[in-house]
Write a structure and sequence with these properties.
Chain A has six helices and seven strands. Chain A has 235 residues and is of the alpha+beta class. The chains are: A alpha+beta (235), B alpha/beta (127).
């Protein structure tokens, strides 16, 4: 990979992180907005002296329960981002691809939801962990998801299917529904995806007809790929 | 004196219904709907004075809903609810009259000031 390619990969990664963070913060602000309204409603009821009867107390307890649920949801969502951040701590580590896909899809749910597209998982639960770059793997999945979000019509879905063989794992990303702009070459010609897969010692292909993208990755990062820790030094 | 009619539009059911309840407690005739289709139906059957509209809705954005509503109810005042810091970028190039926005999480006092101003403008526009 040349210097220019490395720069493009870096800028693509920064864009990916930026988009993920903006979706995440938007989601958290929505959770906070619900909390603020619920707390505000209790304040209103107390201030207006509307919590005295048994029914009113019961209604207030329901609001308090809803606040508790909302805090739980927000905390769960924050832990997804926390894991997303920690996946970048080490350029190479042992990780489970099901979990990496799940974290990413949870963070991007809102983006898909706006287009009324859902993420579906068809995971092989026995898939072995791989030693690779989790951050680059998530960037790879993100780029394919992003392209699919552009070409699947409302009401469609993106299916993540995982599996494994003796020395590799497979990840299929399958668009379902009406494909607005169907061009299977669009993924194959994405050189960033190709670079990432090559670097991770794997293979990527897109099937004719159904738009499915199939990724194969080795269980272990290949020594022949060189030191992934080499970074671009801006000139 | 007639109550100001407010329609809260947000796909977050809990948020929209709680906000509508808080507005009712403050004397507004507020109701909540949670999707674009119900918004159009509500505006056609009982036009509100002010719509509080979430900017990011599934399927159809708040701006698209706003533009559609304006085709059959041009003088309704709309306050966009947004969690986005770059609201100016979102509405860039779109000419919007009778329009305001407020950031989520919402400050209820700030919101009621905006609603009252909007209702007043609408009343003056009718006279």
């Amino acid at each position: 990979m040349g210097h220019k390619d490395e720069e493009r990969l870096l800028s693509s990664h920064l864009s990916f992180i930026g988009k993920t963070l903006s979706v995440f913060t938007h989601e958290v602000k929505n959770h906070l907005a619900i909390l603020k309204e619920s707390v505000g409603l209790i304040g209103d009821l107390v201030e207006m002296g509307k919590i005295s009867s048994k029914e009113e107390i019961s209604e207030t307890l329901k609001i308090i329960q809803s606040i508790d649920n909302q805090i739980g949801k927000t905390s769960w969502f924050c832990s997804r981002l926390n894991r997303f951040g920690h996946r970048m701590d080490n350029l190479l580590s042992t990780f489970n691809v099901n979990e990496a896909i799940e974290d990413l899809s949870e963070l991007l749910n809102r983006l898909a939801n706006q287009k009324r597209i859902t993420f579906q998982r068809d995971f092989d639960e026995d898939i072995p962990p791989i030693y690779s770059s989790p951050a680059q793997f998530q960037l790879l999945v993100f780029r394919i998801v992003e392209k699919n979000l552009q070409r699947i019509d409302q009401g469609g879905a993106i299916v993540f299917k995982t599996g494994y063989t003796k020395d590799s794992i497979t990840i299929d990303i399958i668009p379902e529904g009406n494909l607005i702009e169907f061009n299977e070459e669009v993924i194959r010609n994405d050189d960033i995806c190709e670079h990432i897969v090559k670097r991770l010692g794997g293979d990527i292909s897109s099937a004719a007809g159904d738009g499915k993208v199939a990724i194969t990755l080795p269980l272990s990062y290949p020594a022949s790929s060189g030191d992934i820790r080499q970074t671009v030094t801006p000139k | 004196m007639n109550k100001t009619k407010v329609l809260v539009v947000d796909d977050g059911v809990e948020f929209a219904s709680t906000l509508a309840e808080r507005l009712q407690l403050r004397g507004y005739d507020a109701t909540a709907v949670y999707c674009a289709e119900d918004t159009f139906a509500a505006v056609k059957s009982e036009p509100p004075d002010v719509i509080l509209l979430d900017l990011k809705m599934p399927g159809m954005s708040g701006i698209e809903i706003l533009m559609t509503v304006r085709t059959f109810a041009p003088d309704i005042y709309v306050i966009l609810l947004t969690g986005h810091m770059d609201i100016e970028k979102e509405i860039e190039g779109i000419r919007l009259d009778n329009f305001d926005y407020i950031m989520k999480p919402v400050d209820i006092k700030e919101l009621t000031v905006k609603i009252d101003k909007a209702a007043e403008k609408r009343k003056l526009g009718r006279e």
